[in-house]
Amino acid sequence: MPDYADVCVLIPTLDEAETIGGVIDDFRAEGFESFLVVDGHSGDDTREIAREHGADVITQSGAGKGQAVREGVAHVDDSYVLMLDGDGTYRAADADAMLEPLLADDAEHVIGDRFADMESGAMSTLNGLGNSVINRAFAFIHGHDFRDILSGYRAFSVESFERMHLTADGFAIETEMAVECAKLDIETTVVDITYLARPEASDTNLRPFRDGARIIFALYKLAKTNNPLFYFGSVGAGSMAVGVVTAIYVAIEWFTVRVSHNILALFAAFTILLGIQLLMFGVLSDLLVTLHREQLRRLEDD
What we know:
By secondary structure, this protein is an alpha/beta fold. It is 53% helix and 14% strand. Helix 10 packs antiparallel against helix 11. The radius of gyration is 24 Å and the shape is elongated.
């Protein structure tokens, strides 16, 4: 059995009384001894059951999964963290594959790809479509294909986590961690895992439309410091498109019915010029980010 003496199993929870005990027992059977449950003020017996099964339990001071993860890692004394949800959807049998790149010093951050082997009914069609859109958008915006950036099954070194600048409080935490890995060039590996269907007695805390919108917004907002050309360029291109469409309308009105729209003409000129300026700003910002990264690499090499 592998030695996991320096690994803490971190489990953020909220009303997971039906599953948390079984999750802890399954991972203990795989050789894990250190468990930290960060509970988000559950209204059921989650905390009591977790303690009965031998886990250290803290109640988070704030709210949301992101805040729970940050607070939990701050309490960890081990060098590595294996993070998973307490809903019984992640297998303890995959823990060795998750930790192997980390313990072999081949990676600093490991993501479990749920889509590699997903049990029937584990994810709704709507959630699957949303995940696919977000993953493709992440790859396009941030230049890295991590295959499943919303996966809650993660393994990482505490040192690499502390290098990240994380502010998300809710389910956008996984997205933010993926962006930080890309931005900071944290060595990241994706491994295949099996994703299980959630037990019938356990209810999900995810709200597809609300949380999906927050994740997409976070993905776009974080592009400001990692891919400013896309961030400012997309707004600039949109502004220019509005200006061009308005200008075409004004021109058609003038040449066909001889009606002038002076205010609309000024609006068109303004939005086109604004779009051009934003595109130029995006190019300059992208250049600065590239130079900054190159300088950091040189400092690390020295």
